[in-house]
């Protein structure tokens, strides 16, 4: 077995197979390889699910990446003043549909393996898929099928999806209607007014982008703090699993030594 194959195994087999592979490499004299394998971290449930999807659902991932590229392009065009809200909403819908299709497959994987099927786990799978759709670095990590922890995209692509959507009306207020234009002004659109409208639209998009970026930074800091706390807990769990793995290896070695000693005693 190769180290890469560990990430394609059922989640509950990762630790014992990792210990077995490390033992095999150590017995073969490859101490460096054994140390490297022993240091591999067991994936979280969400990361494991994404790894299995990446290894088995090439067509669905191709659509996810294409949808993500289309969404990023639509956002950039809107901010530059060359796009429109309809194109952005369509691209956003396509990306969400690609993520949802993979989430359905993830549900099946998790249920088949008897793993946790909570909303929190599925949300983390969704966040990782969204990051892979919108961010090149996240995409490369996901394509390897060797994630140890889930990902989250906190850039403009993740928080600026609704720049072109209509803002909901405030409760209790009736939107004001623009007064009817006089008959003399109904001959056709005024180029100057159209240009002013484009300038205002760009300004509004920039303001929305800046506000979204600020909110993203706040959310990103909160995410990093939560991830740090989770990393501490995950590290403690991994260390416990490492100790358990070493104890099993030592127990196997002791059993083998006992068997040899017993056989020698019987021969006397």
Please describe the structure with a list of short key phrases separated by commas or semicolons.
71% helix, single chain, elongated, 268 residues, mainly alpha
Shape summary: elongated
> What amount of the residues lies in strands?
under 5%
Q: What's the Cα radius of gyration? A: 27 Å
Mean pLDDT over the full residue set: 76
Helix content: over 70%
Number of helices: 9
Profile the largest sheet: none
User: Which structural class should the secondary elements be placed in?
Assistant: mainly alpha
Order of helices and strands: HHHHHHHHH
Distance between the termini: 40 Å
Question: Could you give the topology of this structure?
Answer:
Elements: H1 14-27, H2 31-38, H3 45-56, H4 58-80, H5 85-112, H6 119-134, H7 136-143, H8 156-159, H9 191-267
Short structural summary:
The chain has 268 residues and is mainly alpha-helical. The chain has helices spanning 14-27, 31-38, 45-56, 58-80, 85-112, 119-134, 136-143, 156-159, 191-267. The protein starts with 13 loop residues before the first helix and ends with a helix.
Write up this protein.
The protein has 268 residues and is mostly helical. The chain is built from nine helices and no strands. The protein has helices at residues 14-27, 31-38, 45-56, 58-80, 85-112, 119-134, 136-143, 156-159, 191-267. Helix 4 crosses helix 6 (119-134).
């Amino acid at each position: 077995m190769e180290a890469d194959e560990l990430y394609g195994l059922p989640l509950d087999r990762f630790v014992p197979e990792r210990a077995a592979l490390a033992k095999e490499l150590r017995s073969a004299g490859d101490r460096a390889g054994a140390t490297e394998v022993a240091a591999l971290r067991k994936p979280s449930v969400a990361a494991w699910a994404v790894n299995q999807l990446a290894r088995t659902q090439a067509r669905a991932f191709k659509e996810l990446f294409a949808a993500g590229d289309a969404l990023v392009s639509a956002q950039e065009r809107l901010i530059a003043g060359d796009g429109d809200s309809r194109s952005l909403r369509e691209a956003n819908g396509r990306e969400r549909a690609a993520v949802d299709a993979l989430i359905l497959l993830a549900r099946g994987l998790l249920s088949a393996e008897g793993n946790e099927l909570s909303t929190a786990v599925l949300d983390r799978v969704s966040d990782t898929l969204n990051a892979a759709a919108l961010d090149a670095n996240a995409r490369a990590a996901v394509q390897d099928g060797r994630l140890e922890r889930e990902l989250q995209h906190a850039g403009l692509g993740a928080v600026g999806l609704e720049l072109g959507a209509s803002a909901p009306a405030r409760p209790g207020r009736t939107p004001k209607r623009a007064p009817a234009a006089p008959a003399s002004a109904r001959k056709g659109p005024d180029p100057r007014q159209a240009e002013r409208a484009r300038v205002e639209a760009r300004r509004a998009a920039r303001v929305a982008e800046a506000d979204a970026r600020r909110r993203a930074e706040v959310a990103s800091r909160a995410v990093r703090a939560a991830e740090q706390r989770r990393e501490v807990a995950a590290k403690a769990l991994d260390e416990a699993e490492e100790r358990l793995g070493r104890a099993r290896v030592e127990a196997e070695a002791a059993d083998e030594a006992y068997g040899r000693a017993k056989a020698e005693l019987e021969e006397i």
